[in-house]
Automatic annotation (TrEMBL):
Pfam families from the UniProt entry: Lipase_3
Signal peptide start and end residues: 1-16
An individual GO BP term: lipid metabolic process
Domain of life: Eukaryota
Protein name: Fungal lipase-type domain-containing protein
């Protein structure tokens, strides 16, 4: 999920750099799930401008589930590290309510180590653990999680952003999620 998302974002930029307009014209959008930051503000700008100038504009959408640590690395801490996301962010909270963030806006707790989010992160880790054990009772047997998945969620009690990187949550977000309209 993480490496694939990073490569998926880099691919259209490389196509634009090498002037592969015929290939770019066949791309409608790049959707990534749990994608890490790939470049700096210059790269994000290049990606937006080069894919928008493609014969058929290529949109870039990244999906972030709750406090997933991967979309928050590498850390954005100028002047030491100046990493940025490009494209549009769709952020899902723990109950699969999504919202499309404004252009350039990052998911909450953008660098993961913000003290004001500690209580919320641990509370959400507990919520994810209980949801993993009982979601099937509400949504059906397709949502029953196995022992390995529950243990992985329990690891989130020690490292709260780890369990949120589960592919299961990203799949559930797409299946059960609702996306609120973008606020103007």
């Amino acid at each position: 999920m993480a490496l694939g998302g990073a490569l998926a974002v880099a691919f259209p930029a490389l196509l634009a750099f090498h002037r592969e307009a015929d290939v770019l014209a066949r791309l409608a959008a790049v959707h990534t799930y749990g994608q890490p930051r790939v470049g700096d503000a210059t790269f994000a700008g290049y990606l937006s401008s080069s894919t928008a100038a493609a014969p058929a504009s290529v949109s870039s959408v990244r999906v972030v589930y709750r406090y997933d640590i991967v979309p928050r690395v590498p850390f954005d801490a100028p002047p030491v590290a100046d990493y940025r996301h490009g494209g549009t962010c769709v952020y899902y909270d723990g109950w699969y309510a999504g919202r499309t963030l404004a252009a350039g806006e990052d998911a909450p707790n953008k660098n993961y180590f913000d003290p004001k989010y500690v209580v919320s992160m641990y509370g959400n880790a507990w919520g994810d653990l209980f949801k993993g054990m009982f979601l099937w009772a509400k949504e059906g047997k397709d949502y029953r999680e196995g022992a390995v998945s529950i243990v992985f969620r329990a690891a989130g009690l020690l490292f709260p952003g780890l369990a949120s990187h589960s592919p299961r949550d990203y799949v559930n977000a797409v299946r059960l999620g609702r996306i609120a309209p973008k606020q103007a």
